[in-house]
């Protein structure tokens, strides 16, 4: 029960815009990762999905990160950017004022 946000009252769900009008960005280099971090700093909320592979590995690897704001979708190549993701995205993920779904 500690994970439930008790400060949120009954909120009317907001329908997403049509897929055709939602922009998409494939994030494969540091420049795009910087732009993504800036956009997430400006957002109040965002959704995250991770794809993980642990086949023949005890530790496993996060292979893909999908992030969506209300207006944009991003696919992050976590294998290519594995060293840079933490420095650029750590602060927005740690920020308790941002709602992560």
Key phrases:
101 residues; alpha/beta; 5-stranded mixed sheet; 23% helix
Order of helices and strands: EHEEEHE
Shape, principal axes of CA atoms: globular
How far from one another are the termini? 17 Å
Task: Give the beta-strand count.
Answer: 5
Q: How many strands, which pairing sense, and closed or not: the largest β-sheet?
A: 5 strands, mixed
**Which structural category fits the helices and strands?**
alpha/beta
Portion of residues in beta strands equals 25-35%
Low-pLDDT stretches are: none
The overall pLDDT, averaged over residues, is 88
Protein name: 3'-5' exonuclease domain-containing protein
GO molecular function: 3'-5'-RNA exonuclease activity; single-stranded RNA binding
GO biological process, one term: poly(A)-dependent snoRNA 3'-end processing
Domain 3'-5' exonuclease: 26-101
What does this structure look like?
Residues 26-101 form the 3'-5' exonuclease domain. This is 3'-5' exonuclease domain-containing protein. The chain is of the alpha/beta class and 101 residues long. The chain has helices at 30-42, 85-94; strands at residues 23-27, 45-53, 61-68, 72-77, 99-100. Helices cover 23% and strands 30% of the residues.
Write a compact overview of the structure shown:
The chain has two helices and five strands. The chain is an alpha/beta fold.
Topology overview:
Blueprint: E1 23-27, H1 30-42, E2 45-53, E3 61-68, E4 72-77, H2 85-94, E5 99-100
Parallel strand pairs: 1-4, 2-5
Antiparallel strand pairs: 2-3, 3-4
